[in-house]
Each structure stands twice: as structure tokens, then as C-alpha cells.
């Protein structure tokens, strides 16, 4: 098992920047590119709800906008604003975020780390969280 402590710590740092005045549900994500760089993302809400962006997609879009398109792992932390590190439950990515991951990652090797703290986490392959995903391969004739 790899050591994901730094990635999880960065996800907690990103969570602090969450803009979630409506749900009060703060999420942070730290995305590890194959280049070794970590891209941070937080959830960003909007009063009309549908323009809201999840932490995971924020991290992916930041990375892709900087030219990075190959990824190793993502650490995700989140929960109600009052919940502190080590408390609460694991925060899994929504279906839309899983689909974005499938666009840019090999589901057989990309790791999704759901954490409560740097030492308490669960590790999944993307293919476990999004079986039978729809990808660009499905659009090729």
C-alpha cells in the first residue's frame, strides 16, 4: 500500500477553502498527477445550485487547464462543516465526478482515497467505484 499521508493532508488544506454557505458540507480533494504535482480542489456552491462544482472536478479542471492529463490518485475528505479531522464518515465522489475521473484516468490503476485523517482512510480503484463506465472508447467505431 502506498503512503498517502501527504495527499490526504493536502485534501484537508483544500477543504478549508470550501465555499459552501448553503449546504455547509465542506469537501477537499488533492489530485496526484503522474508528473508528481498535486492539484487541489474544493467544492464551490452557487445560490442556484446547478452551477455548483465539486472539489474533485475543481482539482481535475485545474490540472487539465494547466496541461496535465495523466493521474495516479486522488484523496477526498469532506463532511458537515462542524465535523473535524478524524470524525464523521468517509466522503465518496458523486457520479458526475466519477465520470470525469473515467475521462482522464485508467480505471484499473487510478486510486481513489477516501479519508477521515492521514492514518484512517480507504483505498479503491476507480473501476470499483464506477463499474461499466462510459468512456471515449465507447464512442469509437
3D architecture notes:
The protein has 141 residues and is an alpha+beta fold. The protein is 26% helix and 24% strand. The chain has 4 helices and 5 strands, in the order αββαβαββα. The radius of gyration is 14 Å and the shape is globular. The protein starts with a helix and ends in a 12-residue tail after the last helix.
Compact overview of the structure:
Helices cover 26% and strands 24% of the residues. The protein contains 4 helices and 5 strands; from the N terminus they run H-E-E-H-E-H-E-E-H.
Shape: globular
* Overall mean confidence score, pLDDT: 95
Q: Return Rg in Å.
A: 14 Å
The SSE string, one letter per element, is: HEEHEHEEH
Could you state the oligomeric state of the chains shown?
Answer: single chain
User: What's the total helix number?
Assistant: 4
Major sheet size, sense and barrel closure: 5 strands, mixed
User: In total, how many beta strands?
Assistant: 5
* Percentage of residues in strands: 15-25%
Structural category:
alpha+beta
Output the strand order for the largest sheet: 2-1-3-4-5
Instruction: List low-pLDDT spans.
Output: none
Task: Detail the topology: elements first, then pairings.
Layout: H1 5-15, E1 25-33, E2 38-42, H2 55-65, E3 71-80, H3 95-104, E4 111-115, E5 121-125, H4 126-129
Parallel strand pairs: 3-4
Antiparallel strand pairs: 1-2, 1-3, 4-5
Amino acid at each position: 500500500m502506498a503512503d498517502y499521508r501527504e495527499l490526504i493532508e493536502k485534501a484537508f488544506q483544500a477543504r478549508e477553502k470550501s465555499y459552501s454557505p448553503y449546504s455547509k458540507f465542506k469537501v477537499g480533494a488533492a489530485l496526484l498527477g503522474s508528473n508528481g504535482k498535486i492539484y487541489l480542489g474544493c467544492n464551490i456552491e452557487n445560490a442556484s445550485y446547478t452551477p455548483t462544482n465539486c472539489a474533485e472536478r475543481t482539482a481535475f479542471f485545474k490540472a487539465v487547464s494547466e496541461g496535465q492529463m495523466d493521474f495516479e490518485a486522488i484523496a477526498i475528505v469532506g463532511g458537515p462543516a462542524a465535523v473535524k479531522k478524524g470524525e464523521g464518515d468517509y466522503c465518496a465522489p458523486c457520479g458526475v465526478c466519477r465520470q470525469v475521473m473515467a475521462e482522464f484516468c485508467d480505471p484499473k490503476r487510478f486510486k481513489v482515497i477516501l479519508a477521515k485523517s492521514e492514518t484512517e482512510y480507504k483505498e479503491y480503484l476507480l473501476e470499483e467505484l464506477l463499474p461499466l463506465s462510459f468512456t471515449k472508447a465507447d464512442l469509437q467505431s
